[in-house]
Design brief:
elongated, mainly alpha
């Protein structure tokens, strides 16, 4: 009908999810992408547990 099929929708959805989780900057966590914030936070927790 519009030249789109289920594969196109799936690719568009996965592209958006990747952007949302890994690339967008989020102001409430210091203008960094959520994945970067999570990695930093996880690294800090690991360091605190070792010490």
């Amino acid at each position: 009908m519009y030249g789109r099929n289920l594969d196109d929708v799936e690719i568009a959805t996965l592209t958006w999810v990747d952007w949302h989780n890994n690339q967008r900057v989020h102001s409430s966590i210091g203008d960094v992408p959520p994945a970067e914030h999570e990695a930093t936070s996880y690294g800090l927790r690991q360091t605190a547990q070792i010490a």
